[in-house]
Design a protein that fits this description.
This is Triosephosphate isomerase. The chain is α/β, with parallel strands linked by helices and 250 residues long. Helix content is 43%, strand content 15%. The chain has one domain: TIM Barrel. The chain is built from 12 helices and 8 strands. Helix 11 links the parallel strand 7 and strand 8. The structure holds phosphoenolpyruvate. Phosphoenolpyruvate binds next to strand 8.
């Protein structure tokens, strides 16, 4: 069986003292047997967070990495540096990075390889824009992005990837996809993985839903056959609601 995974995406929020205080508040609460609990924080918070979660089951993720190990890439952070901190996860290809930082499927794929090279599990985001949904292109977009992200991975690696299906029109808008619609697209993505790697990998790969998930709707998403958790922005910023999200995933 697949272990559900709730991942908070803090985006560009929280100073180091705020991040530390958050962990103090969720310790022992956002630690539910059978649910993986992950906080993906800004780079500046990562050393303090790695220290803060010691002795807990809470895992820490970054929100991006560069695909090279080092070099003249001003402002970038590499997998070598994240591995040095002991970070467990890294979000790759979030729609905000695709939109504002021109991340293509090729770049996403290189970043996925860089994460594996350094033993960090990628959380790869895929999802359609509103106009693509309206043009009935949701599955076509998810196909290109999923196949692009996984290209060249071994079956063993593909089975470890976490995929986050995030319809862009639902991110930070309060307009969430219905649980049934999200499940339909996620089942389709699982079928794509099956086509590429076979049934065992498809059954192992975890696929989250993301887009205005909150404590009030998380249980409904988690009740769907193919949804293995959630990638959550806004509702992951408050300790109480983050704890409720993790509890809702059990
Ligand atoms: C996200 O940042 O990936 C996200 C889904 O945000 P929100 O939960 O705020 O829609």
């Amino acid at each position: 069986m697949r272990t559900p995974i709730i991942a908070g995406n803090w985006k560009m929020f929280k100073t180091v003292p705020e991040a530390k205080a958050f962990i103090e508040e969720i310790k022992g609460k956002a630690e539910v047997a059978g649910v993986e609990s992950v906080i993906c924080a800004p780079f500046t918070n990562l050393p303090a967070l790695m220290e803060a979660v010691k002795g807990t089951s809470i895992k820490i993720g970054a929100q991006n990495l560069h695909f090279e190990d080092d070099g003249a890439y001003t402002g970038e952070i590499s997998g070598v540096m994240l591995k040095d901190l002991g970070v467990h996860y890294v979000i790759i290809g979030h729609s905000e990075r695709r939109a504002y930082f021109a991340e293509s499927d090729e770049i996403v794929n290189k970043k996925v390889f860089a994460a594996f090279k350094h033993g960090i599990t990628p959380i790869v985001c895929v999802g359609e824009k509103l106009e693509e949904r309206e043009a009935d292109q949701t599955k076509a977009v998810c196909k290109v992005q999923t196949e692009g992200a996984l290209k060249g991975l071994t079956a063993e690696q593909a089975a470890q990837v976490v995929i986050a299906y995030e319809p862009i029109w639902a991110i930070g808008t309060g307009k969430s996809s219905t649980a049934q619609d999200a499940n339909e697209v996620i089942s389709y993505i699982r079928e794509l993985v099956k086509g590429l790697y076979g049934e065992n990998v498809a059954n192992a790969v975890r696929i989250q839903y993301g887009g205005s998930v909150k404590p009030e709707n998380v249980v409904e998403y988690m009740g769907q056959s193919d949804i293995d958790g959630a990638l959550v922005g806004g509702a992951s910023l408050q300790p109480t609601s983050y704890v409720q999200l993790v509890e809702g995933a059990k």
